[in-house]
Amino acid sequence: MILQVERLAKVYPGGVRANEDISLHVDRGEVFGLLGPNGAGKTTLVSQVLGLAKPTSGTIHIDGVDVVQRPAVARRACSYQPQSSVPIRGLTPLQAIELVGRIRRLDRQEARRRTIELLETLELTEWSSKVVTELSGGVTRLVAFCMSAVAPGRIVILDEPTNDVDPLRRKLLWREVRALADAGSAVVLVTHNVLEAERCVDRLAIVDHGTVVAEGTPAALKSAFGGALRLEVVLDPTAAAPAAPAFLASPTRAGRRLIGDVGAADLMVAVAWAKELQRRGTIEEFSIGPATLEDVYVRRVGPEPEREDTGASVAG
């Protein structure tokens, strides 16, 4: 394996615990998802892997090297796309991406070839010669991804790479993420977009309040639902919310949505109940299907509002 994290903890002055007892590993050729709400400790964990923050306790090894003791090794081994905008002033996408390739020791010809390849793959060629500060947020985000992917390290860390990116180019970006893993990098995808993560990751860890609350493949995590179906109803904003019926197991409210599990024996009853609510105008729509990774996420983390980071922490 390329990345091994064992019993990692980070406590800031004042006793703020950003991470506590985190253990995980990422293998070569794998897309590993790090999921969790804002303030869960994801960005603090990434900062420690990158050698930018020192853990209070625990170990981080990259290719067997202790990078807590040798943080420069981590910075050489990792490519990183931060969640915040990359300050690129006075450069075009072509110049910015190629410059990073040269910094990461590609020769001039290879840096140019790889830059053009990425711009074409993500359909950014029409903006390649425009100054980055004049581009939209979505295009700028894709340029930042290209800068992390032009000469990928042993580990590629992508923090919310699809923010502001339009749906068509998101599909192109996910293809390129998969290509990075297929070429041998270990890709760490940091996100709270569970639906996108389910399509892309090989394995994932759900982090909440600084700890790993679930880890495994999407299929293994969803199997915890025991084959139950998922019923979701979308409430009409002007109607009073109905009481959860007895056949609905583990009911959860998330905004205007009521979600719960339905056993196969109760399927017809559940459909009839939902249709009657729709006829009355209590709900706008409903759906029944297999459990999703979002169901696992909500069950583990809860549908609480996104939390603000503390001033002492860089958790995200």
Keywords:
316 residues; alpha/beta; Rossmann fold; 2 domains; six-stranded mixed beta sheet; four-stranded antiparallel beta sheet; 28% strand; globular; disordered C terminus
Description:
The chain is α/β, with parallel strands linked by helices. It folds into 2 domains: 3-220, P-loop containing nucleotide triphosphate hydrolases (Rossmann fold); 228-290. The chain is built from 10 helices and 14 strands. It has a 6-stranded mixed β-sheet with strand order 6-7-8-3-9-10, with helices on both faces. Strands 2-1-4-5 form a 4-stranded antiparallel β-sheet, with helices on one face. A hairpin with a 3-residue loop joins strand 1 (3-12) and strand 2 (16-26). Helix 3 (93-103) crosses helix 4 (108-121) and helix 3 (93-103) runs parallel beside helix 5. The longest helix is centred in the middle third of the chain and has 16 residues, at 167-182. It is globular and about 65 Å long.
Short description:
The chain has 316 residues and is an alpha/beta fold. It has helices at 42-49, 71-77, 93-103, 108-121, 137-149, 167-182, 194-200, 218-222, 267-280, 293-301; strands at 3-12, 16-26, 31-35, 57-62, 65-66, 78-81, 155-159, 186-191, 203-208, 211-216, 229-235, 249-254, 257-262, 283-290.
SSE blueprint and pairings:
Elements: E1 3-12, E2 16-26, E3 31-35, H1 42-49, E4 57-62, E5 65-66, H2 71-77, E6 78-81, H3 93-103, H4 108-121, H5 137-149, E7 155-159, H6 167-182, E8 186-191, H7 194-200, E9 203-208, E10 211-216, H8 218-222, E11 229-235, E12 249-254, E13 257-262, H9 267-280, E14 283-290, H10 293-301
Parallel strand pairs: 3-8, 3-9, 6-7, 7-8
Antiparallel strand pairs: 1-2, 1-4, 4-5, 9-10, 11-13, 11-14, 12-13
Helix pairs in contact: 3-4, 3-5
